[in-house]
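Example record for the data management plan.
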Amino acid sequence: MRRFLVVICALLGSLAAGTASAETYNYTLAGASPGGLWTSLGVGVDAAVKAAYPGSTITYQTSGGGLANIVLLQQKKVQMGIVHDAELKIAVDGGAPFKQPVKDLRMIANMYDWAPMVAIMTKAFADQYGIKTFDDIAVKKPPMRLALNKRGNIANDVGVQMLQAIGVSIDDVKKWGGQVILAASSEQTDLMKDRRADLIINSLFVRHGSLLELDQAVDIVHLPLSQAVIDRVTKEAGIKPFTIPANSYKLQPNPVPTVTLSAGVVVNAAMDEKTAYNLTKALVERIDKIKEVHKSMQALTPKLMASATVIPFHPGAARYYKEAGLQ
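Corresponding structural encoding:
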């Protein structure tokens, strides 16, 4: 009888294990345009879920970016989406393009929080007008050629908020005899290399390849933000403070205080708790699959994945993080 019970228990254990391993997820993850970090994150998320639940496929779908992904998630046209914290803040506040506050989004995992907003000025221009800090722009009122990211990119919105925090508008820049150029990241650095831009405001990883190339081609300085500007922008945009380490660039001997964008994997609140739990578990416990897709992801940790401030975690994700001792 004892031997019979042992055999039955073993069979039941095998059946339970088989049921768990048979779980599969064939979902779509909305990202941004082809190429770039978010595409790589799509590959990593797919690899992590596949490793945890064989037979699963997370298909990366290109889109217009985080704001577009929020709409796709609301309409349940995708199950997962990558969204910046600043974009989530716009959504929950009911800012444009949303007509009312968005309440049906939940976080699964934060993916990074090291995409600082940089304010880079050519050294020649900074020296000519005596500009040493970001706040000095409002005092000196230089006729600068300012390069911002294109409209629709959240870095454009935050760049404008940074200027507003020192009392400067886009119209002010033009009144001073300056010019505002809207250009993608790669175009911005090319403009500065060609001496067609004096100041770049954008979100770029520390020692991003384009910045290192610019640093070699042109003498540039990184303008630090005052604490007052950091406090205002982090509150308005729902983002975090950040310090660019000293000596990250050629003419940057001191740390540079600024703010940073974060991005995470978001789902609709209607996702069932078991699915959210399992997806979170897969991303955290197969974190190596995500870290290996891009060198900038080496800093990713389970603790960071469990951090979010703008929207709450899905109950399933929160349960996993609590069980794992991460919250």
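Summary line stored alongside the record: The chain has 15 helices and ten strands.
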